[in-house]
From TrEMBL:
InterPro entries: Nitroreductase (IPR029479), Nitroreductase-like (IPR000415), Nitroreductase/BluB (IPR050627). This is Nitroreductase. SUPFAM superfamilies: FMN-dependent nitroreductase-like. The keyword Oxidoreductase applies. The keyword Flavoprotein applies. It comes from Roseateles toxinivorans.
Length: 228
């Protein structure tokens, strides 16, 4: 026997804006040009960022599509010095193990053009860190677990929205992935159903900030797409 459910409540598509073909192309090109200017930054100054700016970027991330619209994400924003220091210490300990042996040679070769190493001063110097948690499952009002669907895909999309929103707001970011990063649950006081997936470092690039050329080389359209 199949269960029947109440039909969904529908509404007219809100705020849909039809563009002319010329406007479409102009907007698509403008967005591409803007995103082309985004580079991953590893050298931040400590200038603080207005909380309202970050909150709007988080609201933008929260508009992302997700499996069954369950929005299986949580963004923990860390600004206090003590927590940042603790995160840096814990991350660098893991990274030292990674660079000094845990990482296979092939992985280190792939990273060489970026020049990364175990030293992560940006974790302390940047004004804020956004720890992105994926909710592996939900917990309802009575404390019962329920399934979340397409969690990695959903959190990945929301993270993309967030990085893009931060960039549009004139901020630089770094998608940092200390591994393992279970220590972030304790530091961010997040429950067991949440798994930290990305530590986004956010702020202004330091004056004279250098970035690896390698990071700016993007694959051509013919390589990343095909038309059928
Ligand atoms: N987590 C390490 C190593 C690292 C791995 C990848 I894949 C990168 O794109 C960059 C770094 C680190 O942060 O140094």
């Amino acid at each position: 026997m199949t269960t029947t459910f109440a039909p969904p409540v529908m509404e007219a598509l809100p705020h849909y804006q039809e563009l002319s073909p010329a406007q479409m192309l102009e907007r698509a090109q403008a967005r591409y040009q803007s995103l082309l200017r985004r580079r991953t930054v590893r050298d931040f100054d400590s200038r603080p960022v207005d909380r309202a700016v970050i909150e709007h970027c988080l609201l933008a991330a929260g508009t992302a599509p997700s499996g069954a619209n369950q929005q299986p994400w949580h963004f923990a924003v860390i600004t206090d010095t003590a927590r940042k220091q603790e995160i840096r210490a814990a991350a660098e300990e893991e990274e030292r193990a990674f660079y000094a042996g845990r990482a296979p040679e092939e992985w280190l070769r792939a990273l060489a053009p970026l020049g990364t190493d175990a030293s992560k001063p940006f974790l302390e110097e940047a004004p804020l860190l956004i720890c992105i948690f994926a909710q592996k499952y939900g917990i309802d009002a009575s404390g019962e677990r329920f399934s979340h669907y397409y969690v990695p895909e959903s959190v990945g999309i929301a993270t993309g929205f967030l990085i893009s929103a931060l960039h549009e707001a004139g901020l630089a970011s770094l998608t940092h992935t200390p591994s393992p990063m279970g220590f972030l649950n304790r530091i961010c006081m997040r429950p067991d159903n949440e798994k930290p997936v990305i530590l986004l470092v956010v702020g202004h690039p330091k004056a004279g900030c250098q970035v690896p050329v390698h990071g700016g080389i993007k694959k051509p359209l013919e390589q990343i797409s095909s038309w059928l």
